[in-house]
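The records we work with from here on pair a chain with its fold. Here is one such record, which you should read through line by line:
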Amino acid sequence: MSTTQTDSIASTALAGWLATAETRAAKANEPAWALAKRQHAAQVAASMHFPSRDEELWRRTDFSSLVIDGLDPFATGAKARNIDDLPAFVLERIAGEAANLAILAQRDNEMVLEQTHPTLTKQGVIVCSMDRALREHGDRVQKLLGTLIATDYDRWTAIGEALHSGGMFVHVPKGVHAEIPVRLMQWLSGEGKLAAPRSVIAVEEGASITVLEEMISEGGESPSLFLGGTELFIGAGAKLTFASLQDWGRNVFHYSNGRVQMAQDSELQWIQVMVGGRMTKQNIWFNLDGQGGRAFVHGFMFGDHRQHFHLHTLQRHLKPNCTSDLLIKGCLKDRARSIYQGLIQVAEGAQRTDAYQANRNLLLSDQARADSIPGLEILANDVRCTHGATLGHVDEEMLYYLQCRGLPEKEAQRLVVEAFFEPVLDRIPLESVREQLRGEIAAKIG
């Protein structure tokens, strides 16, 4: 980001946003400790520079084309009385499943619908917006919010924390197996918006739940910006299935941090999908901090035109006898680009670690580009850690085989790409979401 733009934002828009966010939070009766954290984040944001391409994690991704002083981080509108009040393009995503879900719906920076499910209420599961949780479950939230995502990780992170509004809070009591999945629908209502939600999901000892967050927008020409932060806490022997599905319009810049803290014998299934947006930068850390923890991470990116995806993962093995298995697939056409940077980190004493990391890329044009940068950092001597990356074009013989059996070229190509992504699609918990993504794949093929 240019010096001129940085100075302009620091002296005008950013300073004004931070002050307004603090005032609005105080009027909403945000607790004193949360206001103090917000104020600290504002001070950190004001003292930092935006990341530059001199930094390794930003060398291949450049947000300098985003002029943020024209964005609106405080857009408001009418609340939804029930699910039927949501926009048609949102309702299409949950058609046929609304009765069997707990649904949180957030427009821009404001939660407009919070609808838990009687079954979850009976089980003692808390599902609500982060704003409500700060007021009504402050003691629980205070122990968790902001403990995994460092405020000074970079300036975007600090801005997101200072401006945060909305996001979800999910708490599953000890030993409870939530029978109903939770779904967060986050959408941007048009161009020139800025959303900065913060979410916390806590699954206590021996409990389990499935949570999906889906990010969509109504599109537009002028840029919008999403600054997300999600912190997951999985207790001893607990299990969490979490799916993050990014399908923004082509004007959206996306920056987010995900952090997971895993206790002894806990299990995580993380599904990561990125098919929308103009430019995406996502960082996800998995802290295996209890013996016997298991993290399974699967995801895919599918870009066309000039879409840009950058995913950075960190598998942190902090205790012995833990397993992590990560597979990220990418498919690119036209002039789209993807960057995958991954690191397996094994701490001293984390013996008998079993870690795997793979990135597979399929290119559908000669102009598309995929960068794969896996890495290992091992401080223990009794481990099994492997990583790998592949890059290639669609097998011409396979396409010829399908076309010889009567399939048009585009249909044959669609089948090949779907088969490439199918292991990830199969892991997505809801059938309607799987079908939506298959439709997105077909549309990108043409």
